[in-house]
Amino acid sequence: MNLQAKSILSSPSRMYWRITQILVGLVGLGIFIALIFFPEIGIHAFWNVLIPIAPALFVVAVGLWRNVCPLASTSLISRHLGFAKKKKLKVKQQGRLQLIAVILLLLIVPLRHTIFDTNGLATAIIIGILALIAIYVSYKYNWKSAWCSGLCPIHPVEKLYGRKSLFVLPNAHCKTCVKCVAPCPDSTPSIHPLYKKKKMLSNKIAGALIIGGFPGFIWGWFHVQDYFNNEGWKYLVSTYAYPFIAMTITLILFLVMKKVVAKKHEVILINLFAAAAVSVYYWYRLPALIGFGIIQGDGMLVDFSQSLPNWFPIILQTLTTLFFAWWIVFNKKEISNWVIRPPYKKQNKSIRNIINPTV
Description:
Elements: H1 3-6, H2 11-37, H3 39-68, H4 70-75, H5 77-80, H6 91-108, H7 111-116, H8 120-140, H9 147-151, H10 155-161, E1 169-170, H11 201-221, H12 236-260, H13 266-289, H14 312-330, E2 339-340, H15 349-355
Parallel strand pairs: 1-2
Helix pairs in contact: 2-3, 2-8, 3-13, 6-11, 11-12, 11-13, 13-14
């Protein structure tokens, strides 16, 4: 199978992808508007529909999300229209951005309990701020390097969960590869948070935090309640304490196991912690969505607690845990890249002669 040939999208195929990106973008815009003017609807649509779907999508088809993510599409408008500056990110800068992305994720998520889960306007504001940052850094730096593969707080989760993709798609954003980041997360098989050709301290810290700390962080997060009417600011310390203390415990466990486990088995250890993180998430999230949450009412989309038997959530929890353990850890499916790398951009002949006069 010639994957490289399949990476060159025909004009109709590219048009279909653009239409899909626009439609997904319109849905995102609709949710954004609802968060401001119809906050109850917007909060349910964003926090209780879109966000619960995302981790499962990252596990089975992260490349699909990378192709249609509305924030990614928005950030790349300047590049698609041809007026981006295309500044090259240095390797050290790339590592620092990825560490900042992990820190942003860990700082923003606990604030859901304090304000974002119950305040549509606040959620819209943080989304707007992230969108402006994405647009600016993507305008300044080359292609997907600064946002989609750098500063985006969701990117570390994509690398943690997206180890085995159900299918590989053509890259719907990049017509040619300009080597904006190395290694390219979209087209590097076996990519994970600790994967790096040139290992730097920032990459090691970011990778260890998201792999080892995320299972505990998620567990701790679900043991904090949502607060209303700005009451949560009084409990800010405990809001952060639960996920951060639990994160520290699982991080220490990971670091100890990493020291003990042979280098050749390190990927298995990473897969175990990835499966643990996503399993813990759905262990608590799915029951909460249907009214069986450990904190009554938090994160509920629809209340089925009076119509479904008490054992039903246990079935959901068991099935999702078994699936993620099988898919991420035990499934023998060949680990592939998220999307197919497009052809490398051909250098101008005069530029090649300057670089290598013998050409």
